[in-house]
Structure formats: C-alpha cells, structure tokens
C-alpha cells in the first residue's frame, strides 16, 4: 500500500490553555507568557494561548487578558482563545485574540455537564458570538466535543456529528474541530468520520483534537492524516488530563507527535530539539511529572555511548 | 480505503518474563505462578512464562525452573521460555517449556552489549541449541532484537534484518520475532519490513514485539496488522522498561492492545474485563505504578454516572 506522507501536518499547540487549565499549582503570569513565547519560537503557527472563561470556573487561567496583552506576537502565528459565551468573546476581542474557539458537545448530556447548558442554548449563544465577531478581523473556530464518544452516553451517532459540522458552517465558522474529549476514539472510526467530514469542509478548515487516555492518541492522528486531515491539536509534554481517568494521559503530547512526524518524514515546520528542551522545563513549572515519552527517551537519533566492555568482546 | 479487521490477532503475553525481569522488588515464586495461571485463564494461547538465564545476570527470574514446574498447564496454551545458551536450553527442556525463544540483535554492537558475544558467536550457539532441541517436542523461536533501530548504532539496514530472517529459517527456527527493543520503530517502517518478511515466512510464524518508548507502540501494531502480521507480544500493565529511557514506557500494554482490538472488532479471544482486573493487581505486586492506560481509564463502554445537576438544566 502506497501512502503519501509529503503533505505538511499543522500542529496547534494547546498546552497554555488545555494543559494549564486543570493544574492545581498556580502558574505565574510571567511563566505563562514565557511558555507561549518559547512555543512560538519553536515554529508553531497556531497556539491556543488561553481562555476567557469565568475565573470561578477556571481559576488557573484567570489572567487570560494580561497573558494575551503581554505575549510577544510573532508574525505568522495565530493566537487562539477558548471562549464559552458572549462575555468571553468580548474579552477575547479586547485582548486581540486572532481566533476564538467555541465549544459544544455532540453529546447533550456532556454539554449540560461541561457547559451547564443544553445544545440548543449553546447554538443560540454561538449565533450571538458570530454577530459580535463579524467585522472584527478575528476568525471563529467551533469545536464538536465528545465527537468520538461520550463518557456518559457512550457511542455518538455519526450523523449527529456530521449535522453539527453542517450547522457550524452555516453559522459562518471558518474552522471546525472534532474533539475526542475523553480519549474514546479508535483509528477505524477516525478514518471513517474524517473522510465523511472532509466531504463537507476543506482540510485546512478541519482540526482533530485527540486525547491519549487509552493509548491510541498517535494511532488516531495517523489514521486521520491518512484520511486527509492536516491539522491537529497537541499539548507540550502531554500536559492536560481527563477528569474521568485519574492517572491516565490527557491530550496527545506535542513532541511525541512531532517526533513521529519526523520519523515518517511528514513536514511540520517545528524544531523538535527546541521543543524537547522546552518540555523538559514543564515538571518544574507544574510541580509534577508529565506523560510525554520523547522528552524522557530522547529522539531516535540521540544515540547512547557504547559500553567500554563491548570493545573487549 | 477498505481495510479488513476480521482476522484474529494473537497476543503473546510476556509480562512474567520481559516485565518482571527488570523489577527491583523480588516477586515471590507463588505470586509469579498465580500471575501466569491468572493470565492463562484470560484466554491467552501463548505466554512467555520465564527465562533460563544466569541468576547473576537476571536475579529476578532465578526461580524459572520452579515456576515452569508448578504452573497449571492449561490445554492449548504454549508456555515459552527465553534462553541465552545451551545450558539455558537444557534447563528449559527439563522444565518442560513448550517453546524456547532465542535472541540475537541485528545490531552487532547491541548484541555484544546485551548478550556479551558477537553475532557470529550467537549464531554458532543457536546451531548447538537446534541440535539439542531436535526431537524433544519443543519448538524454537528466534528473535531479531533491535530490528527497527539500535540505541548505539541508530538505523538498522533492512537487508540485514531480512538476511537474519533467512538464516533463522535455514537453521530450522519455526517462529521468528522482530523486536523493537528500545522503541525506535515507526508505522511506515513497520509496514515496509513486515511486508518484506512476510514474503519470506508465513504470517503464523512471525511475531512482532513493540515497545511504547516513544508513544508509537499501538500505532506500530496497527501498521503491522494492516501489513499482514497476526501475532504480537505485549505485557500486562505495560510492565517492563527500557534501560535507555528512564521513566518512559517499555513493552506495549496488553490490555491497551486488547481494548484497541475490541474497538476495531479485531478478534483476540482474550477476556478484556478479566485482564483489566488482573492488571489492577500489578502495582501491589511490583510496588509501583505501571504505564498501562486502560486499567486506569476503564473501557470505553464503562460509562460514568451523570452528575445530578445535569437534570436541572
């Protein structure tokens, strides 16, 4: 089977938002800004840099306004903000976020548990946000959370996922993310859904957001890439977790993803060595070990010295 | 792209050998026997149950003779022993191992570092073992270690791997394992090498042994399966490590592999629920957390209770 691995894979780094949002230890604003600036120096073209959610709901990211104002805006980098509602969109626009990311779950139960509103209410809010953002110069991305499975409802009807994609496009969303929020996707399902959605929207408008909760994160990336997807969320060090799987991994790890791409000769434009160095600063920043593997094991090309006794055999 | 996932995938469980061999804490002989017997009750048809290596080299497995004598032999299960030399083969036959697994690295440097002999010396020893085992009723499997990369030499010439496979077959080895000893394989390389080797030997004679050192373990399994491979080593809980990657995972995790197969509808014959229960006993047995993800996260079908507040929205 001949497969083409020559097309660029765009990595959107989400550690500053999806990674830091669940950390117990407060990460200083200066440290957040340094992390984002160090990430943009690694070659990312898209960074989810923070969220404009209620500080009561996500205290770890309550300094989003200051972070967005003080980061060094590198030309060509799109700085994305996650927003839950119109108020968040107003804050994000005031902080000059380049793109706003809205989230609704394909699962009605999960949307009520996570966003504390029905899907109908979510979509009504999205309409208000579309009208607010129109003409601002910022672009809009909308995420279908639990697109590959819900921890409350189980399997998600693929017709429903396709229908939400259509609704998002009709509302004027430039980008759409399919998120495997709690790591329930498998490569076969991923290939099927990606092929279906790419019949509706162009590859440059689609992002895949995988978690490694059950060990399938990179296998799912590869299945999606082989089905035509080109843009993926990933988190430095695999930072970020899943409240339904204590001890298991959360987001797929950026440097593990980039290392895989290097081995497969898939271009990413990201400096893997710099990325690994940056990832190795994370345990000190967040106060615990992180799940990423390549920062521990090194790249394949980082060879080990030959033991002295070998020369005597 | 239509892919066929209907063919059975055979999992050879290696935790009692590859997993336990590097554990610092002594695991009691009774506990090893209980582990193996509990594994055979999960539906495995192949278990690498121990090794007959010098007790100085691998003290953790010095009770191999007693383990092999006292396990409950379940009909249909092949109990494999790893052996390094003729003396080990004599012990394995005396202990009624069903199959003997021999190891040589494709990398000359790694073979000298790991086996403390040259590849030429290894092959000469294999010849002696083949003569010893002939007529005993036991079968022979030979492993090509570092088949996908060497931590000292880097990339391994694929012609060399193919040539070792030919040599093994000419010597009379019934089975051959290609081992990614330190987790350097990638799915593209795996597909290429598996396709090449399956031009030389039938699928039922080939085992793939992957490590998850850089997060690609299950992606490599899937690439190998799609290329026609049908037999895979895996270790309960992901037990086992890599001395060159402290903190990174070692062997791929059995229950993560079986869970992937269930999601893909690939038959394995293994009881996943029993397997997860057994994996959850490992931290107490070895005295530390293990890398497997599914034992922490649960199966996809293990749904979570809906929070009470959801009903009020």
Automatic annotation (TrEMBL), chains A, B:
Keywords per UniProt: Lyase, Metal-binding
Positions of transmembrane segments: none
PROSITE patterns from the UniProt entry: PYR_CT
Chain ranges of the Pyruvate carboxyltransferase domain: 9-276
One Pfam assignment: HMGL-like
A molecular-function term among this protein's GO annotations: metal ion binding
Coiled-coil stretches noted in the UniProt entry, renumbered to this chain: none
InterPro entries linked: Aldolase_TIM, HMGL, PYR_CT
Gene Ontology process terms (BP): ketone body biosynthetic process; L-leucine catabolic process
NCBIfam families associated with the record: PRK05692.1
Family assignment from sequence similarity: Belongs to the HMG-CoA lyase family.
PANTHER family: HYDROXYMETHYLGLUTARYL-COA LYASE
Annotated protein name in UniProt: Hydroxymethylglutaryl-CoA lyase
Organism: Caballeronia glathei
